[in-house]
Design brief:
globular; 797 residues; 11 helices
Length: 797
């Protein structure tokens, strides 16, 4: 390019070796150099150097450092699985200078980098950035003055920076994501959020905005998202080489999350039994007790799939040996549970007793995190020893799942309280704990997931863990909300915590139904006030992606049958969960196949409706069911908002109601308000006692007229990874509202053991018909489906 000419090229597509310069001779106030380098645009300012890389039309990677040498915040990024492959920018420089000799000095203007979906404007005065969409609607803008700040720090004998970036935003914008936090806040506009792992708080640096973008702050260091001053968002990290983030444009939140998971990993499918009910308490003390609980559930015909053995089964924590008096033959116990169609999950910790054999072996080889009793999952040798000596041995006994407790981690000493973040001053194999203070849960679950997958493809991985970091969804990990209190106050805070976790790209989340304890003390299942709390929490838990109860109770019971007068209510919701399994398992396939989200805050589907921006106590369960938990003690009604839709149906009665309205609805103790969107096709299974029970039974299809709709019914073998090799089937179901016609389309795919023929019992819902949790006796149509397309019409009324 001839930089001496006065007529700058207006639009340039960057190719290797091209340079674009905002020169002082053409723009007297400009101090910014722009050049192409290795597929990126490099912007040199008086204060720092930026590297701008388009990863796709809708993702841009930004790094900035004082000298421009750092290409990322940290040298290793194990949370990323799909590195940014440069995508061409079209670059537009300011208009030509027509009369430079006589015209007064002008502001140097902006260079525009266009991906085809995002316009990235670079100030030729300061190098500050602004992101806009293709219609020039501003999405995000750096503050004009001192936006990027680098403060030198020496941390763990390493010279790093405390970095921050400041952005300005309009009043009409809301923020979500950032992991799971217990402050009761849903919309983080006006809030300060610290990202540092600790029990009940999980740090994931993905922020979503109602403007239609996501910002992924690309570091595992302790970070702050500070929006206390309402027109400014300051994002900072405590230990980094550079400012480093990805700007992701949707504008739909599903699109942002899809792109985030493309970068950090897609979520595999759990075994079908994992979408059923997990029975747990703190804690079962013997094999005999586990078998007795299994017998209680089967003899009382209450559905359940998983029994959980919590902590202190061991002789020494960290070794694989069970206490022999309480667990004389673990393999035999597991065989008996399997014969009763139960699966078993075992709690294992990343920390060790000082007198355990595993700890001595790790310590002898220098494989612990110095100053802690934890193994170092970022060290391949430490990870291999941990898996082979603890997890693998338990898999060989027959355990079906693992509960990776205390994965923040709890570390430092054997005491229960530790500084925050725990790893800040520690040395990890991967590097300084200050750089990687949030990485432990990702590395820990990665170790167990990879080891499991190398051992067998016949049994799917299921992990439960107390903390999370970016990318953990790819490790078949469910996060639970930690050791929360057994109070209505704590219960109410679980909803925004879980919804923001979903908006952080994490599809699987659960809570201890009923809470873990209260101020270190348990509640009694015989206490009527606690029975109310437990019932309301259980109703909510029925509609969480993973459905499990756990906690410390003073009367040492936590089974559904121990809750006295409310037991029938609990069993009814347990049965409803199992009737919903065809729906839930199909949603789970959408998570795996197309990066779907099961637990959906209203802002996901109605992002432009400001009335939903602060609603953190209602959510969609999949695309069709609106869930409205009751979180106030003594409440027998609640207010709720029905978003825009042609209409909604009360799930319990079939009564139809218009959308876009506030309602006060009745909510007696035995009823959580549920609404189904018009146009929904809801598949319901039979009443069963475990997930694999009665596979040949008819499926009830409830059709909710009022709009066109569809649903893809997914089926596979229920376990193993043959589904990844195409052994699965999808049955597309379409509802044509105007014609009143339901079409069950041709089956796509097959798998061994598939039911080739099945009956569908079709119910066209209306007031007084097709409502409630029990099977509809008077269904409207019954068809036998053989895999070929067929249609039926609604009866005329």
């Amino acid at each position: 390019m001839n930089l001496d000419r006065l007529h700058l090229v207006k639009a340039i597509t960057l190719v290797s070796g091209a340079f674009i310069l905002a020169t002082p001779s053409l723009f007297p106030q400009a101090d910014v150099l722009i050049r192409e380098e290795a597929g990126s645009v490099v912007v040199k300012t008086p204060a720092d150097t930026l590297r701008l890389t388009a990863c796709s039309q809708t993702v841009v990677h930004i790094t900035a450092s004082p000298d421009g040498k750092a290409l990322s915040a940290s040298p290793h990024e194990p949370w990323m699985v799909s590195p940014c492959t440069p995508h061409k920018f079209a670059v537009t420089m300011p208009e030509e200078v027509k009369s430079p000799a006589t015209a007064p000095p002008a502001a140097p203007g902006q260079a525009v980098l266009n991906t085809g979906a995002i316009k990235l404007l670079v100030s030729l005065d300061t190098g500050n950035l602004q992101f806009s969409d293709e219609q020039d609607v501003r999405l995000l803008r750096e503050a004009h003055d001192s936006s990027r700040i680098y403060s030198p720090e020496v941390v763990n004998s390493e010279s790093l920076y405390r970095v921050s970036d400041r952005f300005t935003m309009p009043a009409s914008e809301a923020f979500y994501g950032l992991g799971q936090h217990q402050d009761g806040v849903f919309n983080y506009r006006g809030s300060l959020v610290e990202l540092a792992q600790i029990n009940t708080d999980a740090a994931i640096p993905l922020l979503l905005s109602t403007k239609g973008y996501g910002l992924f702050w690309n570091t595992a260091s302790k970070s702050l998202f500070d929006n206390r001053f309402p027109s400014e968002l300051r994002i900072s990290s405590a230990a980094a080489d550079a400012i480093d983030y990805y700007f992701i444009y949707g504008p739909d939140f599903d699109d942002v999350i899809r792109q985030y998971r493309t970068m950090t990993g897609h979520a595999p499918l759990f075994p079908k039994w994992a979408y059923g009910f997990f029975q747990s308490k703190d804690r079962y003390k013997s094999a005999a007790e586990l078998l007795n609980i299994a017998d209680q559930y089967r003899s009382n015909h209450a559905p359940a799939d998983v029994l959980v053995q919590d902590w202190y089964w061991w002789i020494h924590r960290g070794d694989a040996e069970f206490r022999p008096a309480a667990y004389p033959n673990v393999g035999d116990t597991l065989e008996k549970l399997h014969r009763e169609h139960f699966h078993a999950m075992l709690s294992v910790w990343p920390s060790f007793d000082s007198d355990s054999k595993t700890y001595h072996e790790l310590a002898k080889r220098g494989l612990t995190i110095p100053g802690t009793m934890n193994y170092d999952p970022t060290n391949p040798a430490s990870a291999a020893l941990y898996f082979s000596t603890l997890v693998q041995k338990q898999m060989e006994l027959g355990w079906d799942a693992f509960w990776l407790d205390a994965s923040e981690p709890e570390a430092g000493t054997e005491a229960a309280t530790h500084p925050d973040p725990v790893l800040w001053d520690k040395k990890l194999f991967i590097g300084s704990g200050a750089r990687y203070s949030n990485i432990f849960p990702l590395a820990h679950t990665t170790n167990v997931y990879r080891g499991w997958r190398e051992l067998t493809e016949e049994k799917r991985v299921f992990l439960l863990t107390r903390s999370a970091f970016a990318g953990e969804q790819r490790n078949a990990a469910t996060v639970w909300s930690g050791d929360v209190y057994s109070t209505f106050h704590a219960f109410g805070r679980q909803l925004p915590a879980g919804l923001n976790f979903a908006l952080s790209g994490m599809p699987y989340w659960t809570t201890d139904i009923g809470g873990y304890s209260s101020d270190g003390k348990g509640r009694s299942t015989e206490d009527p006030s606690y029975q109310e709390l437990y019932t309301r929490w259980f109703e909510f838990g029925t509609f969480c992606p993973i459905f499990r109860t756990h906690g410390h109770r003073v009367n040492d019971q936590n089974e559904l049958f121990s809750y006295g007068a409310v037991t029938p209510i609990l069993v009814n919701y347990d049965k409803l969960r199992y009737r919903l399994l065809p729906y839930i398992y199909s949603l789970a396939w959408k998570v795996t196949d197309s990066d779907g989200t099961i637990m959906r805050p209203l802002v996901m589907d109605w992002r432009t409706d400001q009335r939903v921006w602060d609603i953190g106590d209602q959510f969609m369960f999949g695309p069709d069911i609106l869930v409205n938990p009751v979180t106030q003690e003594g409440a027998t009604s609640r207010q709720l908002y029905l978003p825009q839709a042609s209409s909604w149906y009360d799930f319990w009665t079939g009564q139809q109601t218009p959308g876009s309205k506030q309602l006060e609805v009745l909510a007696p103790l035995d009823r959580i308000p549920l609404y189904v969107r018009a146009g929904s096709v809801l598949p319901l299974g039979p009443e069963v006692e475990y997930a694999a029970d009665q596979p040949e039974a008819p499926i009830e299809l409830r059709v909710y007229p009022g709009a066109d709709g569809s649903f893809d019914l997914y089926e596979d073998a229920g376990d193993g990874y043959a589904y990844e090799r195409g052994q699965r089937s999808v049955i597309p179901i379409l509802w044509d509202d105007k014609a009143g016609r339901l079409t069950i389309g041709q089956r796509v795919g097959q798998f061994p053991g598939m039911m080739k023929d099945r009956k569908f019992q079709i119910v066209f819902v209306r007031n007084g018909h097709g409502g409630g949790s029990e099977p509809t006796a008077a269904f409207d149509r019954e068809v036998t489906y053989t895999g070929q397309s067929l249609s039926t019409t609604a009866p005329k009324r």
